[in-house]
Amino acid sequence: MKIKNILQTRYGGLILFSLIFLSLSFLIRTILLITDFQNADPSFVHFLQIYAYGLFYDLVTISYFIVPFVFYLLLVPSRIYRTKIHKWVSYVFFIITIGILVFSGIGEWFFWEEFSVRYNFIAVDYLVYTHEVIANIRESYPMPIIILGMLLLSAGIFAIVKKHFDKTINSETRFVSRLKYSLILCLLPILAFYSIDKSTAEVADNSYSNELAHNGIYQIFAAFINNELDYKAFYQDMDEKEAFTNLRSLLKTSNSEFVSDDVFDVTRQITYPGVDKKYNVMLITVESLSASFLTHFGNTETNITPNLDTIAQQSLFFTNFYATGTRTVRGMEALTLSLPPTPGFSIVKRPNNENMFTLGNVLKSKGYATNFIYAGNGYFDNMNYFFGNSGYDIIDHKNFSDDEITFENAWGVCDEDLFTKAIQVADSAYKDGKPFHNFIMTTSNHRPYTYPEGKIDIPSHSGRKGAVKYTDYAIAKFFRDAKKHPWFKNTIFVVVADHCASSAGKTSLPVKKYHIPLFIYAPEIIPAAEINTLSSQIDFAPTILGLLNMDYTSKFFGKDILLDKPNRALLGTYQKIGLLRNDQLTVQLPTKRTEAYLINDQEPSATKLNPEELKDAITYYQTASYLFHHKLYNYTEK
User: Fold this and answer.
1) Does residue 188 sit in the same domain as residue 315?
2) Which helix (H) or strand (E) segment is 473 a member of?
3) Is 356 within 8 Å of 435 (Cβ atoms)?
4) What residue ranges of the chain have pLDDT lower than 70?
């Protein structure tokens, strides 16, 4: 039957909806392409692929989207379908459906502006944590104007197609014909569900283009059903015993001995000569502090980190240090667990993550007071549950009295208020005669980029640069205030990012977008030096314990950077996981695919896969997944 004839059946509304969907998707894809045009390969064939693959994913998404409407159109009797009441109800639902598409399109633009990707796991989180997210959106964007525009656009689209939609309402379609159409329309999403995923059609070697070719609604659906990826099902693997044998060789250091001959047991005894130092450890994890913000790494646009640039000269300054992921929970996972970023959600957000082998549990066993101090509500991203069940006491927004809050936004109190609370917590531990470890998580360098006025020369709510400079100011003030307290001289202060401000790039894992600074500041304890060893967040915990000269039992995957140079970094997204070593990035992707890139000061370039590098990459990620799922990375009192 011709489309014109189908338009005159009750299924004509689905045709109209599909045409609207495809038109809006084409418009969104084009706007996003223009937004990041410089990152897409400028060739006609390349653009043709983006739109051809894009049409493919749009059609797959439509097939899912219309399923409930197909069942409705099949089952509703003609005597009801052609009534005036049903006509007006249909108008309402059709307008609402168009509104959802328009709303999704507007949301995608803002999401792309923030993350340079289509909807993904982050968007799923945003649907779960509505309070913080809605407040953040209201504080970041002119929502009344956006909503008005959305309503006007939706109404305008409906006005254009109303004449055709009325014909579908007044049509007469026999049940046998409806059943035939419905079976065909339901078969399509079933076939798609079992045969198509987000990697089925990709524009090769350009992550921006792959994102443009996808459909945001499809992406968020895929994220819902794939919150964790089984390593052996999706990635290249090897024999488990072979993997753990290789892991043992990768983890062995000059001061460690495995406690068991069982190849699957990675527990080692770590020893340092002399006695434990019992220094306090104050860890400041800064939201989205890219290395590129610092003048040391070439930022000449604006002087937004004057204090951190000064602190770098007074610290152990790690200049070749990398985040393991692109979300705060990934940074937390690596800094506390010293574990590679296994595919899917961070372990912080997964079930069965209690009593993990964390830095907090190690220090708590040595008599330390260990605290997780957060500016907002720690139920967000499951942070309170993870930290509270793995060696840390929780201090979050509910522990701030009204007179302790001078400024707050959607994500919590400002960095100054957070640091003031951290000093109070340190004072309490000192009064009790306990060494302490505080894990402090800042939030001011996060959209909506609001902070107290009058502190810096950039107005609040004017963008990322102002938020970075305010955080820089607050950290310097924190150090000045801490110097007035008796525990300062015996404290190691750490400043490190959770992840970079942006994670998008042309390659699967754009290495420059994982580069973060690490400062270890203890002027009374540790001489200043610049450390250029390639390392990542999983090496933080062993390095700190080394500075404490602490003997301990370890399951950590990381190494003491100052003793046994790691000379490798592990980094990933939710689906792509990589090993950076010897100027080569080895990337593993779902469906057991692999890529390799040569990393230098210029753009990364594809290169031949090194079998030994791939073997080690498989080893790190396969064994990390195995240990977590078999509860072999849990903390056991010795």
Assistant:
1) no
2) helix 464-482
3) no
4) 1-7, 40-42, 114-115, 121-136, 197-207, 223-229, 503-507, 602, 638
* Residues designated catalytic: 328
* Per-residue pLDDT, 227: 60
Residue 230 in any domain: the answer is no
**Alpha-carbon separation of residue 266 from 63, 236, 260 (angstroms):** 48, 22, 8
Task: Tell which of 164, 199, 225 closes a domain.
Answer: 225
Residue 133: what pLDDT?
63
The CB density around residue 128, as the number of other CB atoms within 10 Å, is: 12
Domain assignment present for residue 634? The answer is no
**pLDDT score for 290:** 95
- Could you tell me the residue range of the domain that residue 91 belongs to? 3-225
Of 512, 599, 604, 589, nearest in space to 202 by CA: 589
Say yes or no: 206 and 281 in one domain.
Answer: no
Q: The domain that contains 435 carries what CATH number?
A: 3.40.720.10
616 annotated to a ligand binding site: no
Asked whether residue 583 is domain-assigned, the answer is yes
- Is 515 annotated in a binding site? The answer is no
Local structure of 45: helix, strand or coil:
helix
Helix (H) or strand (E) holding 78: helix 78-81
Provide the domain count of the chain.
2
Query: Is residue 244 domain-shared with residue 217, that is, in the same domain?
Result: no
Tell me whether strands 408-409 and 393-395 are parallel, antiparallel or unpaired. unpaired
Q: Judge if 118 and 185 occupy the same domain.
A: yes
Boundary-marking domain end, from 225, 254, 283? 225
Token representation of residue 337: 């667990």
Assigned token pair, 77: 């009797």
DSSP 140-193: HS-HHHHHHHHHHHHHHHHHHHHHHHHHHHT----HHHHHHHHHHHHHHHHHHH
**What phi, psi does 279 have (nearest 5°)?**
-70, 150
Nearest to 374 by CA among 345, 343, 348: 348
Same domain, 100 and 52: yes
| Greatest extent of the chain over all pairs of C-alpha atoms, in Å | 89
Per the domain annotation, does 231 fall within a domain?
no
Task: Give the C-alpha separation, 37 to 612, whole Å.
Answer: 37
pTM to 2 decimals? 0.78
pLDDT of residue 1: 47
Known binding residue 499? Answer is yes
CA–CA distance, 394 with 398 (Å, rounded to integer): 10
Do residues 285 and 332 make contact, with C-beta atoms less than 8 angstroms apart?
yes
State yes or no: 287 annotated in a binding site.
yes
CA pair distance 316, 314, nearest whole angstrom: 7
At 450 the three-state DSSP class reads coil
> Residue length, the chain?
638
152 and 284 co-located in one domain: no
Q: Which two tokens stand for residue 383?
A: 């942070």
The pLDDT value given to residue 451: 96
